[in-house]
Write a structure and sequence with these properties.
475 residues; alpha/beta; Rossmann fold; Helicase, Ruva Protein, domain 3; 4 domains; 5-stranded parallel β-sheet; 19 helices; 16 strands; globular
Length: 475
């Protein structure tokens, strides 16, 4: 059973989700504003938060950071419309566990709750270190978070970009070089870092991944370097930091540009001296750790803006790898899709064979703003919903199908109405009407009833105009 808080200004959604999760045995509560949520969270410890991104008094990103300041271990799931996927991906890099799109599907909600609880258990195993014998020696509980599948299962791809990536990993892995991995959120930077680790001489030692985007200023030093019991308010027990846990192996620092200046100074000292000191301790511990970092913005540009220390940047910049977004790797799209489907089959104990041609075409046309993370979520959702042995259109979010339609319409634009070819007033009016209808259709994800309402015409009239303007792609 999990303690769950639902935050949404739509009371219908709150009540439906609250009743559903209660029936599944969870202890749930709901509030309708960010202010009420923070008041509740200050008085109650919560395992999972479902948080609508758009609230009347705040937004999901701001509220997420406040929740994480109160309790780093609380798993936050963002509720969003599919048109906000780029925003959802951004909040994930700031510490959200995952996102879920409206309309909320019961099976998807339960799957996310189970996954969030599993990760919370793993996180606890990574941060709970106790003096079991009373002799001052701290025992570290094994970290399941980093029991990762056989690296041979890593899908690199077959495109030119993929071949270049494979070559770079193979070249740098056996060295002790520090590596910077650049790429948009969701492009698989941690998978690349882990692949470098498993092909290095440190492969039998720990691989520790740290999401710097989710570290608050107050917690960053403790998380990275550890602390002694009683060293500050709330330090109820001794904690081993991530650098100490990674000793002999590799530490991966994701979203490195988010670290505060003070932590950057401490990090530079660790790299130079190869020693760490827990907060509240006078003792220094020697460490031997390979550092791999990741960022979605060039650190040279961040440094030029004065937001990142130049000396620290040069320490990291011994080798760099650029990960292209999924939209630029068309040859690899179905390779990744089938890989994620195999994983979904294993997780759900299903035997789905593949995708119908219409789904494959939509995957190839879609621009994947959330990259591999988004694709993985969509395929897991489709696999969960399907009762067939193949993924069909019915299991995809409607917005992806609509986006595919829009792409086709854009391709047809030059073959339909062009103002350059219409010098008279009537033709210009037709062109303006076409553009307005297309704008509204896109805004409402091709929902004809909503579009007709906004345009103040009946649905049949809209249908006829869409037919005239060749906007009825696939019906």
């Amino acid at each position: 059973m999990a303690k769950i808080l639902i935050i949404d200004d739509d009371t219908d959604i709150c009540q439906l989700l609250d009743r559903f999760l209660k029936r599944k045995g969870h202890d749930t509560s709901y509030v309708t504003s960010g202010k009420k949520a923070l008041t509740y969270l200050k008085e109650n410890e919560v395992d999972i938060v479902f948080c609508d991104f758009r609230l009347p008094d705040t937004d999901g990103k701001e509220l997420l950071l406040s929740i994480k300041e109160l309790n780093q271990k609380t798993q936050v799931i963002i509720i969003t419309g599919y048109s906000d996927v780029k925003i959802a991906v951004d909040v994930i890099k700031n510490g959200a566990f995952d996102y879920i799109t409206k309309p909320l599907l019961p099976e998807e909600v339960l799957m996310l709750v189970d996954r969030a609880l599993d990760q919370k258990v793993a996180a606890n195993q990574n941060t709970n270190y106790v003096d079991n014998n009373g002799d001052g020696k701290v025992e570290a509980i094994p970290n399941k978070r980093h029991v990762i599948a056989d690296p041979k299962n890593l899908v690199v791809g077959k495109s030119k970009e993929a071949e270049k990536l494979h070559t770079q990993i193979k070249l740098v892995a056996p060295t002790n070089y520090s590596v910077i991995i650049y790429g948009e959120s969701g492009t698989g930077k941690e998978s690349v870092a882990y692949s470098i680790h498993t092909q290095s001489t440190r492969k039998d030692k720990p691989f520790i991944a740290v999401d710097c985007g989710s570290l608050t200023k107050e917690l960053a030093g403790s998380e990275l370097f550890g602390h002694e019991k009683g060293s500050f308010t709330g330090a109820m027990q001794t904690k081993i930091g991530q650098f100490e846990l990674a000793n002999g192996g590799t530490i991966f620092l994701d979203e490195i540009g988010n670290l505060t200046y003070d932590i950057q100074v401490s990090l530079l000292r660790v790299i130079q001296e190869r020693k760490i000191r827990r907060i509240g301790s006078q003792k220094e511990t020697n460490i031997d750790v390979r550092i791999i970092v990741a960022a979605n913005e060039k650190l040279s540009e961040v440094t030029a803006k004065g937001k990142f220390r130049e000396d620290l940047y040069h320490r990291f910049n011994e080798f760099s790898i650029d990960l292209p977004p999924l939209r630029d790797r068309n040859e690899d799209i179905m390779l990744f899709a089938n890989f994620f489907l195999r994983n979904a089959n294993a997780e759900l104990n299903k035997n789905i064979e593949g995708f119908v041609p219409e789904v494959e075409k939509i995957f190839l046309d879609y621009n994947w703003p959330g990259n591999l993370r988004e694709m993985n979520n969509i395929i897991k959702r489709a696999a969960l919903l399907t009762s067939k042995d193949i993924i069909t259109l019915e299991t995809l979010p409607q917005e992806i199908i609509f986006q595919s339609k829009f792409n086709l319409i854009e391709d047809h634009k030059e073959n339909t109405i062009s103002s350059k070819d219409m010098p008279d007033l009537k033709s210009a009016a037709l062109h303006a009407e076409y553009e307005k209808i297309l704008e509204v259709l896109r805004k409402v994800n091709f929902n004809k009833s909503k579009a007709a309402q906004i345009l103040n015409i009946d649905r049949k009239t809209l249908y006829n105009k869409m037919k005239t303007f060749n906007l009825l792609v696939n019906g």
